[in-house]
Amino acid sequence: MITNILRVSLVKRTAAVLCIWCAAFALIAQQRPDALRMYQQGNYDQAISICEQELRTNPKNMDSYVVLCWALVKKGRYSEAEQRALAARKLNQNDHRIIEILAEAKFYLGKNSESLALFQEFLSHVSDNAARVGNAYYFMGEIYLRQGRYEHADIALTAAVRIEPLLFYWWMRLGYAREMSGNYKTSALAYDKALELNPSAAEARAGRERIQSKL
After folding, report:
1. I need a labelling partner for 192 at 20 to 30 A (CA). Which of 58, 130, 166, 172 fits?
2. Over the stretch 55-109, which tens digit does the pLDDT of each residue have?
3. Residue 8 scores a pLDDT above 90
């Protein structure tokens, strides 16, 4: 009887201690800076600072590399983003998140061929409904526009707006790609969609007016 009482008492004390520890860990987790949350809130400098600290503690933390590179690109620090992404790829050559953000950094640096190859590699690693797939197709479309490969741009940008159909700028760029390849009817459809989403889009309106006489 006494043994049972002692056993019950010990279980209760153990449970109480565990509850205290769980509460303490939860409080620490809430107080700990979160780089991803800072990034999502637009606090890019703070996200960079947190990620740098995390990487000093754990130089192989791929999640920290990913958020760091995202934030560096948002800040326009493209060369730094490229270098840090290249360092991350030495740790994990196939991390699709790093491949994609490295492709973005190279896009902004004007390294079109390298960027295009990386976006294609990224798409080979992920499913069609994965995050940032629409972005990849959009950037590929812009690269093709830079290269004057307008039909390729049409294909890439069509894929982009199929995935994310509410971005007027992408529709406007699709209209331009089709205009430049001489597909005026489908160009008009894209420009019209851009204007439907954003009636004040002057560039889309100008494009629609340019092709009006060619329809």
Report:
1. 130
2. 999 999 999 999 999 999 999 999 999 999 999 999 999 999 999 999 999 999 9
3. no
Amino acid (one-letter) located at 81: A
HSE-CB for 207 with a 13 A CA cutoff:
30
pLDDT score, position 92 = 97
How far is it, in rounded angstroms, from Cα 87 to Cα 69?
11
> Do residues 168 and 184 touch, judged by C-beta distance below 8 A?
no
The region that residue 123 occupies, defined by phi over 0 for left and psi between -120 and 50 for alpha, beta otherwise, is: alpha
In the numeric block, the tokens 């987790």 are attached to 29
Rounded Cα distance, 4 and 12, in Å: 12
Taking the CA of residue 215 as centre, how many other CA atoms within 13 Å lie in the half-sphere pointing to its CB? 12
pTM of the complete model: 0.84
Residue 215 pLDDT = 87
Is there a contact between 132 and 100 (Cβ–Cβ < 8 Å)? yes
Type of residue at 44: Y
Paired tokens of 68:
């760091």
Per-residue pLDDT of 176-185, as tens digits, reads 999 999 999 9
Residue holding tokens 């637009």?
A: 42
Q: How far apart are CA 144 and CA 149, in angstroms?
A: 5
